[in-house]
Amino acid sequence: MGMIKPILFLFLFFCKQKGIKYDDNNLLEQNISIQQDSAIVFLTNFYSNYIKEGIRNSPNEKALNSLKEKYLSKKFLSRLSNKELDYDPVINAQDFIEQWLETMNIEPLVKGQFYKVCLPYNDFEGNHNLCMKVKLEKTKEGYLIDNIEEYKMKEEITGQIEQKNIVTSWKGKYVYLAYDRDNYKNEYKINIKSYEDVRILNIIDNDTIKYKSKIISLQTNNGISEIALPLISYQGDNKSDVDTLYLKKEKASYFISGNPIYEINPGNNTWSPLEISN
């Protein structure tokens, strides 16, 4: 019987350390052991109180701002004040959800510097998970939040890399030349420099129209790549959307389509050959 009291004491001590507790300001510290990262305690306190204030029937903006002034660095507050946002950058959303108090998850990316804060929830549309990458600044008193940005999952990053590689494969110069029924020359010279920088010349006999475009759509399927290029004409300071060209790459062959091409070849609602230009 002499061993029961020490074992019971250790069990109760362990439970106390692992349990959820509140401080004098009723700040939730989540179930964190004394060995765990102190930055997680800091972030848990901040997000718990920020969310609890936000889910009130009438959220107190002054209280939310007070929390930001307490937990965010002056540099970060200054950067936020210069931005016009239609969402709350702290939660990366417009509305607060009570579920977050139970589902919130915080884990280190680089201990003491960068943390992933996730706010999972579900609604009639299914399951969702808002995740943010939070940068911390070490201070004498502890920490301050120096930046919050959207955390991009590995799948999203991989997809962006794949998309970038596809766009890179499209870089180059292309030309489409055709003659209408009246034997007027209609030529498109397309120079794809990057995702955001596409230059297009439309030469109609001796007249040249300049367009500046960008890739607004990119699809790949079974080795076939298609992109969409809006034709945006510039006349002085005026800019107007005119039409859209569609380019397709299949193996070593290139094709062009879109209303401008149909107008050149009336009734030919198909892909026309596109040549690579030097």
Automatic annotation (TrEMBL):
InterPro entries: DUF3828
Protein name: DUF3828 domain-containing protein
Gene3D superfamilies, per the entry: 3.10.450.50
Domain DUF3828: start-end pairs: 44-119
Highest taxon of the lineage: Bacteria
